[in-house]
Amino acid sequence: MSTEPFPAVILFHYSWSPYAHKISWYLQLRGIPYKQCIQPPIMPRPDLASLGIKYRRIPLLSIGNEVLCDTSLIIRVLEEKFPEGRLGERGGMWEEWEGWSDRMFPYAAALIPSNLPSMKDERFVKDREDFSGRSFKKEDVDARRERALEKIGGFYHHTEKILSDGRHWILGDRMTLADIEAIWLLEWLIALPGALDSTVTADTYPKTFSWIKRFTVLLPAPESVNIPTINGTEAKDTILDHEQVSASSTSDIGVPDNDSSGIAFGEEVEVTPVDTGKNHPQRGRVRALGKDRVVIEVTPTEVHVGGGSLRVVFPRKGFEIKSVGAKGNARL
Protein backbone atom coordinates (compact mmCIF):
# COMPACT_ATOMS: atom_id res chain seq x y z
CA MET A 1 0.00 0.00 0.00
CA SER A 2 1.22 3.47 -0.84
CA THR A 3 2.70 5.52 2.00
CA GLU A 4 1.60 8.82 0.44
CA PRO A 5 -0.92 10.86 2.44
CA PHE A 6 -4.48 9.95 1.55
CA PRO A 7 -7.76 11.75 2.20
CA ALA A 8 -9.80 10.58 5.18
CA VAL A 9 -12.16 7.66 4.57
CA ILE A 10 -15.49 7.76 6.44
CA LEU A 11 -18.10 4.98 6.41
CA PHE A 12 -21.69 6.08 7.07
CA HIS A 13 -23.68 3.05 8.21
CA TYR A 14 -25.66 1.32 10.92
CA SER A 15 -24.48 -1.89 12.56
CA TRP A 16 -26.98 -4.39 11.19
CA SER A 17 -27.03 -3.28 7.57
CA PRO A 18 -25.93 -6.32 5.50
CA TYR A 19 -24.62 -4.09 2.71
CA ALA A 20 -22.59 -2.16 5.27
CA HIS A 21 -21.13 -5.45 6.51
CA LYS A 22 -19.78 -6.08 3.03
CA ILE A 23 -17.97 -2.73 2.95
CA SER A 24 -16.63 -2.95 6.52
CA TRP A 25 -15.36 -6.48 5.80
CA TYR A 26 -13.60 -5.22 2.71
CA LEU A 27 -11.97 -2.30 4.53
CA GLN A 28 -10.81 -4.52 7.39
CA LEU A 29 -9.47 -7.27 5.13
CA ARG A 30 -7.58 -4.69 3.07
CA GLY A 31 -6.27 -2.90 6.16
CA ILE A 32 -7.59 0.42 4.86
CA PRO A 33 -7.87 2.89 7.76
CA TYR A 34 -11.26 4.53 8.12
CA LYS A 35 -13.60 6.22 10.55
CA GLN A 36 -17.27 5.53 10.98
CA CYS A 37 -20.26 7.79 11.41
CA ILE A 38 -23.18 5.76 12.75
CA GLN A 39 -26.58 6.51 11.23
CA PRO A 40 -30.16 5.73 12.29
CA PRO A 41 -31.57 2.61 10.59
CA ILE A 42 -34.60 4.61 9.45
CA MET A 43 -35.13 8.08 8.08
CA PRO A 44 -34.49 10.91 8.82
CA ARG A 45 -30.68 11.01 8.92
CA PRO A 46 -29.75 14.53 10.04
CA ASP A 47 -25.98 14.01 9.59
CA LEU A 48 -26.41 13.36 5.88
CA ALA A 49 -29.19 15.91 5.46
CA SER A 50 -26.88 18.65 6.76
CA LEU A 51 -24.52 17.79 3.92
CA GLY A 52 -27.36 18.19 1.44
CA ILE A 53 -27.63 14.42 0.89
CA LYS A 54 -31.22 13.19 0.48
CA TYR A 55 -30.29 9.81 -1.01
CA ARG A 56 -31.37 7.29 1.61
CA ARG A 57 -29.59 4.01 0.96
CA ILE A 58 -26.87 2.84 3.35
CA PRO A 59 -23.89 2.60 3.41
CA LEU A 60 -22.23 5.69 2.02
CA LEU A 61 -18.48 6.14 2.00
CA SER A 62 -16.61 9.43 1.72
CA ILE A 63 -13.04 9.84 0.49
CA GLY A 64 -11.97 13.43 0.85
CA ASN A 65 -14.87 15.53 -0.36
CA GLU A 66 -16.34 12.80 -2.55
CA VAL A 67 -19.25 10.80 -1.16
CA LEU A 68 -19.73 7.44 -2.88
CA CYS A 69 -23.21 5.95 -3.17
CA ASP A 70 -23.99 2.25 -3.72
CA THR A 71 -21.72 -0.58 -2.58
CA SER A 72 -20.89 -1.62 -6.13
CA LEU A 73 -19.32 1.79 -6.77
CA ILE A 74 -17.69 1.93 -3.33
CA ILE A 75 -15.85 -1.35 -3.98
CA ARG A 76 -14.71 -0.27 -7.44
CA VAL A 77 -13.37 3.08 -6.26
CA LEU A 78 -11.54 1.50 -3.32
CA GLU A 79 -9.96 -1.02 -5.70
CA GLU A 80 -8.83 1.90 -7.88
CA LYS A 81 -7.51 4.10 -5.12
CA PHE A 82 -5.83 1.26 -3.18
CA PRO A 83 -4.50 -0.94 -6.02
CA GLU A 84 -1.76 -2.72 -4.10
CA GLY A 85 -3.20 -5.94 -2.69
CA ARG A 86 -6.63 -5.44 -4.22
CA LEU A 87 -8.99 -8.40 -4.10
CA GLY A 88 -10.77 -8.11 -7.43
CA GLU A 89 -8.44 -9.86 -9.87
CA ARG A 90 -9.33 -12.81 -12.12
CA GLY A 91 -10.90 -10.92 -14.98
CA GLY A 92 -13.72 -9.38 -13.00
CA MET A 93 -15.39 -12.73 -12.20
CA TRP A 94 -16.34 -11.26 -8.84
CA GLU A 95 -18.84 -9.05 -10.66
CA GLU A 96 -20.96 -12.11 -11.46
CA TRP A 97 -21.28 -12.81 -7.75
CA GLU A 98 -22.01 -9.17 -7.03
CA GLY A 99 -24.90 -9.31 -9.48
CA TRP A 100 -26.15 -12.62 -8.12
CA SER A 101 -26.25 -11.37 -4.51
CA ASP A 102 -27.94 -8.12 -5.49
CA ARG A 103 -30.65 -10.05 -7.39
CA MET A 104 -31.17 -12.31 -4.38
CA PHE A 105 -31.34 -9.51 -1.80
CA PRO A 106 -35.08 -8.81 -2.16
CA TYR A 107 -35.75 -12.48 -1.37
CA ALA A 108 -33.37 -12.32 1.60
CA ALA A 109 -35.14 -9.22 2.90
CA ALA A 110 -38.43 -11.08 2.57
CA LEU A 111 -37.09 -13.59 5.12
CA ILE A 112 -36.87 -11.03 7.94
CA PRO A 113 -39.21 -12.70 10.45
CA SER A 114 -42.46 -10.84 10.98
CA ASN A 115 -42.23 -11.42 14.75
CA LEU A 116 -39.02 -9.44 15.24
CA PRO A 117 -39.42 -6.34 17.44
CA SER A 118 -38.46 -4.03 14.57
CA MET A 119 -41.22 -5.51 12.40
CA LYS A 120 -43.73 -4.52 15.09
CA ASP A 121 -42.42 -0.94 15.18
CA GLU A 122 -44.76 1.23 13.12
CA ARG A 123 -41.97 3.69 12.26
CA PHE A 124 -39.74 0.91 10.94
CA VAL A 125 -42.56 -0.64 8.93
CA LYS A 126 -43.48 2.68 7.30
CA ASP A 127 -39.83 3.42 6.58
CA ARG A 128 -39.28 0.08 4.85
CA GLU A 129 -42.48 0.45 2.88
CA ASP A 130 -41.26 3.85 1.70
CA PHE A 131 -37.90 2.28 0.82
CA SER A 132 -39.08 -0.86 -0.98
CA GLY A 133 -42.49 0.08 -2.31
CA ARG A 134 -43.88 -3.14 -0.78
CA SER A 135 -46.23 -3.80 2.11
CA PHE A 136 -44.55 -4.77 5.38
CA LYS A 137 -47.78 -5.82 7.10
CA LYS A 138 -47.40 -9.13 8.92
CA GLU A 139 -49.77 -11.04 6.64
CA ASP A 140 -47.98 -9.81 3.52
CA VAL A 141 -44.52 -10.55 4.92
CA ASP A 142 -45.60 -14.07 5.87
CA ALA A 143 -47.15 -14.63 2.45
CA ARG A 144 -43.87 -13.90 0.70
CA ARG A 145 -41.82 -16.24 2.86
CA GLU A 146 -42.30 -19.56 1.02
CA ARG A 147 -41.21 -18.15 -2.34
CA ALA A 148 -38.26 -16.36 -0.72
CA LEU A 149 -37.06 -19.55 0.98
CA GLU A 150 -37.15 -21.34 -2.35
CA LYS A 151 -35.04 -18.70 -4.09
CA ILE A 152 -32.53 -18.33 -1.25
CA GLY A 153 -32.24 -22.11 -0.95
CA GLY A 154 -31.18 -22.07 -4.57
CA PHE A 155 -28.35 -19.67 -3.72
CA TYR A 156 -27.00 -21.99 -0.99
CA HIS A 157 -27.37 -24.94 -3.38
CA HIS A 158 -25.41 -23.05 -6.05
CA THR A 159 -22.45 -22.35 -3.77
CA GLU A 160 -22.53 -25.90 -2.39
CA LYS A 161 -22.26 -27.29 -5.91
CA ILE A 162 -19.33 -25.02 -6.79
CA LEU A 163 -17.46 -25.94 -3.61
CA SER A 164 -18.07 -29.66 -4.11
CA ASP A 165 -14.80 -30.08 -6.05
CA GLY A 166 -12.85 -29.50 -2.84
CA ARG A 167 -11.86 -25.88 -3.40
CA HIS A 168 -11.62 -23.71 -0.30
CA TRP A 169 -12.69 -20.47 -1.97
CA ILE A 170 -15.27 -19.63 -4.58
CA LEU A 171 -12.70 -19.05 -7.34
CA GLY A 172 -10.12 -21.58 -6.20
CA ASP A 173 -7.23 -21.60 -3.78
CA ARG A 174 -7.39 -18.12 -2.25
CA MET A 175 -9.94 -15.68 -0.94
CA THR A 176 -10.93 -12.98 -3.43
CA LEU A 177 -13.54 -10.28 -3.79
CA ALA A 178 -15.87 -12.95 -5.22
CA ASP A 179 -16.03 -14.53 -1.75
CA ILE A 180 -17.02 -11.24 -0.12
CA GLU A 181 -19.66 -10.62 -2.79
CA ALA A 182 -21.16 -14.08 -2.32
CA ILE A 183 -20.88 -14.47 1.45
CA TRP A 184 -22.28 -11.19 2.78
CA LEU A 185 -25.88 -12.14 2.03
CA LEU A 186 -25.62 -15.80 3.08
CA GLU A 187 -23.88 -14.97 6.35
CA TRP A 188 -26.44 -12.28 7.17
CA LEU A 189 -29.28 -14.78 6.86
CA ILE A 190 -27.48 -17.35 9.01
CA ALA A 191 -26.95 -14.72 11.71
CA LEU A 192 -30.55 -13.44 11.55
CA PRO A 193 -32.61 -15.49 14.04
CA GLY A 194 -35.60 -17.17 12.43
CA ALA A 195 -34.76 -16.14 8.86
CA LEU A 196 -33.97 -19.65 7.60
CA ASP A 197 -35.68 -22.96 8.25
CA SER A 198 -34.46 -26.56 8.60
CA THR A 199 -33.80 -26.83 4.86
CA VAL A 200 -30.76 -24.55 5.16
CA THR A 201 -28.35 -25.72 7.87
CA ALA A 202 -24.76 -26.83 8.31
CA ASP A 203 -26.03 -30.38 7.76
CA THR A 204 -27.80 -29.68 4.47
CA TYR A 205 -25.05 -27.41 3.08
CA PRO A 206 -21.85 -28.43 4.92
CA LYS A 207 -19.36 -27.11 2.36
CA THR A 208 -21.06 -23.72 2.16
CA PHE A 209 -21.21 -23.33 5.94
CA SER A 210 -17.52 -24.37 6.24
CA TRP A 211 -16.59 -21.85 3.55
CA ILE A 212 -18.43 -19.07 5.39
CA LYS A 213 -16.64 -20.04 8.61
CA ARG A 214 -13.23 -19.96 6.86
CA PHE A 215 -14.03 -16.46 5.68
CA THR A 216 -15.16 -15.11 9.05
CA VAL A 217 -11.98 -16.47 10.65
CA LEU A 218 -10.00 -14.13 8.38
CA LEU A 219 -11.76 -11.11 9.82
CA PRO A 220 -10.20 -9.37 12.80
CA ALA A 221 -11.61 -10.51 16.14
CA PRO A 222 -14.38 -8.08 17.21
CA GLU A 223 -12.56 -7.24 20.43
CA SER A 224 -9.47 -6.23 18.43
CA VAL A 225 -11.33 -3.89 16.08
CA ASN A 226 -11.26 -0.28 17.20
CA ILE A 227 -12.77 1.81 14.43
CA PRO A 228 -12.75 5.51 15.38
CA THR A 229 -16.33 6.76 15.61
CA ILE A 230 -17.07 10.38 14.77
CA ASN A 231 -20.27 12.39 14.97
CA GLY A 232 -22.04 14.08 12.09
CA THR A 233 -20.45 17.48 12.69
CA GLU A 234 -16.96 15.99 12.66
CA ALA A 235 -17.74 14.06 9.48
CA LYS A 236 -19.12 17.16 7.80
CA ASP A 237 -16.10 19.26 8.74
CA THR A 238 -13.72 16.56 7.48
CA ILE A 239 -15.49 16.34 4.13
CA LEU A 240 -16.01 20.05 3.50
CA ASP A 241 -12.55 21.13 4.68
CA HIS A 242 -10.89 18.79 2.20
CA GLU A 243 -9.63 20.13 -1.12
CA GLN A 244 -10.05 17.69 -3.98
CA VAL A 245 -6.51 16.79 -5.04
CA SER A 246 -6.68 13.06 -5.72
CA ALA A 247 -5.16 12.16 -9.05
CA SER A 248 -7.57 9.23 -9.35
CA SER A 249 -10.63 11.39 -8.72
CA THR A 250 -13.59 10.99 -11.04
CA SER A 251 -14.60 14.61 -10.57
CA ASP A 252 -12.75 16.33 -13.38
CA ILE A 253 -13.57 14.31 -16.50
CA GLY A 254 -16.39 16.60 -17.64
CA VAL A 255 -19.29 15.52 -19.84
CA PRO A 256 -18.73 14.04 -23.33
CA ASP A 257 -20.61 15.85 -26.10
CA ASN A 258 -22.15 12.60 -27.28
CA ASP A 259 -23.25 11.25 -23.90
CA SER A 260 -26.47 9.26 -24.27
CA SER A 261 -28.12 11.02 -21.32
CA GLY A 262 -28.23 14.37 -23.10
CA ILE A 263 -27.19 16.02 -19.84
CA ALA A 264 -24.84 19.01 -19.98
CA PHE A 265 -22.00 19.96 -17.66
CA GLY A 266 -23.25 22.09 -14.76
CA GLU A 267 -26.90 21.18 -15.36
CA GLU A 268 -29.04 20.72 -12.25
CA VAL A 269 -30.32 17.15 -12.07
CA GLU A 270 -31.87 14.57 -9.81
CA VAL A 271 -30.28 11.13 -9.59
CA THR A 272 -32.60 8.33 -8.50
CA PRO A 273 -32.24 4.56 -7.99
CA VAL A 274 -34.40 2.51 -10.36
CA ASP A 275 -35.39 -0.08 -7.74
CA THR A 276 -35.44 0.87 -4.05
CA GLY A 277 -35.30 4.28 -2.35
CA LYS A 278 -36.91 5.98 -5.34
CA ASN A 279 -38.76 8.49 -3.15
CA HIS A 280 -35.50 10.19 -2.19
CA PRO A 281 -33.73 11.49 -5.32
CA GLN A 282 -30.46 13.34 -4.96
CA ARG A 283 -30.25 16.80 -6.47
CA GLY A 284 -27.05 18.51 -7.60
CA ARG A 285 -25.15 19.97 -10.53
CA VAL A 286 -23.37 17.66 -12.94
CA ARG A 287 -19.60 17.77 -12.77
CA ALA A 288 -18.74 14.55 -14.58
CA LEU A 289 -20.30 11.76 -16.60
CA GLY A 290 -18.04 8.79 -17.12
CA LYS A 291 -18.92 5.50 -18.76
CA ASP A 292 -19.71 3.92 -15.40
CA ARG A 293 -20.38 6.79 -12.98
CA VAL A 294 -21.84 10.25 -12.56
CA VAL A 295 -20.58 13.02 -10.27
CA ILE A 296 -22.78 15.84 -9.04
CA GLU A 297 -21.87 18.81 -6.86
CA VAL A 298 -24.06 19.20 -3.80
CA THR A 299 -24.36 22.26 -1.55
CA PRO A 300 -24.81 21.60 2.17
CA THR A 301 -28.12 22.70 3.66
CA GLU A 302 -26.38 24.11 6.72
CA VAL A 303 -23.76 26.85 6.56
CA HIS A 304 -20.19 25.63 7.02
CA VAL A 305 -17.42 27.91 8.22
CA GLY A 306 -15.29 28.61 5.16
CA GLY A 307 -17.99 27.41 2.78
CA GLY A 308 -17.25 24.27 0.82
CA SER A 309 -19.19 21.78 -1.23
CA LEU A 310 -19.01 18.08 -1.85
CA ARG A 311 -19.15 15.75 -4.81
CA VAL A 312 -21.66 12.90 -4.66
CA VAL A 313 -20.83 9.99 -6.94
CA PHE A 314 -23.26 7.39 -8.30
CA PRO A 315 -22.79 4.41 -10.59
CA ARG A 316 -24.57 4.75 -13.92
CA LYS A 317 -25.93 1.22 -13.73
CA GLY A 318 -29.12 1.04 -11.70
CA PHE A 319 -29.75 4.79 -11.57
CA GLU A 320 -31.64 7.37 -13.60
CA ILE A 321 -30.85 11.02 -14.13
CA LYS A 322 -33.45 13.71 -14.74
CA SER A 323 -32.86 17.35 -15.52
CA VAL A 324 -34.66 19.47 -12.93
CA GLY A 325 -37.73 20.93 -14.57
CA ALA A 326 -37.45 18.68 -17.61
CA LYS A 327 -39.98 16.05 -18.64
CA GLY A 328 -39.04 12.38 -18.58
CA ASN A 329 -35.99 10.50 -17.37
CA ALA A 330 -32.72 9.59 -19.00
CA ARG A 331 -31.35 6.21 -17.97
CA LEU A 332 -27.78 6.43 -16.67
UniProtKB/TrEMBL annotation:
Domain of life, per UniProt, equals Eukaryota
InterPro entries assigned? DUF7962, Glutathione-S-Trfase_C-like, Glutathione-S-Trfase_C_sf, Glutathione_S-Trfase_N, Thioredoxin-like_sf
Q: Which residues form the GST N-terminal domain?
A: 7-86
Please state what the protein is called. Answer: GST N-terminal domain-containing protein
Looking at the record, the residues that make up the GST C-terminal domain are 105-240
Q: Where is the signal peptide?
A: none
Q: To which species is this protein native?
A: Tuber magnatum
One Pfam family this chain carries?
A: DUF7962
